[in-house]
Request: fold
Amino acid sequence: MAENPAQFFESTIREPDYWTDARSPLASLCFLLPWLAIYEAGIHLAARENPATARNGADYWMRSILTHAGAGHLLLPVLVIAALFIWHIAGKHPWRLRAETQLGMLAESLLFAIGLIALGRFHQLLFDLRFSDFQQAPLAMMTPAAVKAVTYVGAGVYEEVLFRLFLIPAACLVFRMFEFPGRLAAVMAAVTTSFFFAVAHHIGPAADAFNVFSFSFRAAAGVFFATVFLLRGFGITVGCHAAYDLLVGVLLTAPGTLPGEHT
Reply:
């Protein structure tokens, strides 16, 4: 005899679904914690006396705001963790963690990072065809490979916290206030925050020299990360960003292998 429809529906709801599970704030938090721990520990090992000198730009900006507001700069990781917990509780997500989900998120992160590498190659090809005499401004890489790796992990964590976790929902809210439809508001938020993401890499004392290639690639990468964030969640976006920067900035550093742009 066929199962009662209500019982079948309830069993389906209880059945863990990876694609939904991986988007949950709790899964994102657990996936984020190792990246966060590696970055924070690495920063203090790399610059014990003045960790601020080795911090990623987005991290430095947010800690500076906290410091000027009278809060300790060590509050930032706590705020990130608290934000994900509040998101989880407010959204009434199930308190469920699975090792398979974490492994799947890592695999997705690597796949998306490889996809961004392919996008970078395509972007470089189009750029070379359009600007054949363009000379890219050299990027100053004065730190050891280990310190670079730590800062790239920090970019994956804190740039995603700032530009995706915080700014995309805020931008969506603003566009919704102007009565944009939900999906269009999300698209507008993705594009707008990607523009600011690209601009941010060329602002401040440690900023890269501005050139069209750097700006256009990072804007495209911002749209890529925003799309991953909206479709697959925060944790996978962090993993994708960190994995891409590590692959390009540390493992694939031979001249001519890639556009040479970490994000």
